[in-house]
Design goal:
Number of strands: 8
Strand content: 35-45%
Structural class: alpha+beta
Strand order of the largest sheet: 1-2-3-6-5-4
Distance between the termini: 32 Å
Radius of gyration: 17 Å
Order of helices and strands: HEEEHEEHEEE
Number of helices: 3
CATH class: Mainly Beta
Largest sheet: 6 strands, antiparallel, barrel
Shape: globular
CATH superfamily: Electron Transport, Fmn-binding Protein, Chain A
Length: 157
């Protein structure tokens, strides 16, 4: 049987392996899915370029688009990396920063990594620093039961 017929194709990874894979993806991927919701619960999902500093995800978007408004209003986001057969989900707390409030070296690092500098845009962007509170990662059904890698901001492995 194939994986799509219900059987998994690989042995489950340990938590430590999944953490290493997750940290590698955070350090090397450039785009991340950002899910937010309005105050009245309307969901919104967009891909954004990001930088990972080892502690938080840094993204930028327009201050007055749905994502910018939602992240500012709720202070929460759900992030996703990878495909449905190798996913990392991150629930995080959002810190909103004006463009000039972020240290220059952080903004320069974001620009170098993503190829995009929101400081140069004529429209009003904001920085969104998202600190993970919960991290989950799994490939197949055999990794679902131990998918939590972080709880309450603390790594489990």
């Amino acid at each position: 049987m194939t994986a799509t017929q219900g059987k998994t194709s690989a042995a489950p990874r340990s938590r430590a392996e999944r953490r290493r894979d997750t940290e590698h993806r955070l350090a090397h991927d450039v785009d991340i899915w950002v899910a937010s919701a309005s105050a009245d619960g309307v969901p919104y999902l967009v891909p954004l370029s990001f930088d990972w500093d080892g502690e938080a995800v840094l993204a930028a978007t327009l201050a007055d688009n749905p994502t910018g408004r939602n992240l500012t209003a709720t202070g929460a986001a759900r992030l996703a990396l990878g495909s449905t057969r190798d996913v990392t989900m991150i629930d995080g707390d959002v810190e909103v920063l004006a463009m000039d409030a972020l240290p220059r070296d952080h903004a320069d690092r974001f620009t170098a990594r993503t190829g995009f500098d929101p400081r140069e845009e004529s429209t009003r962007y904001r920085w969104f620093r998202i600190t993970p509170r919960r991290v989950q990662a799994w490939r197949e059904a055999n990794e679902i039961t131990a998918r939590d890698l972080m709880r309450n901001g603390q790594w489990l492995a």
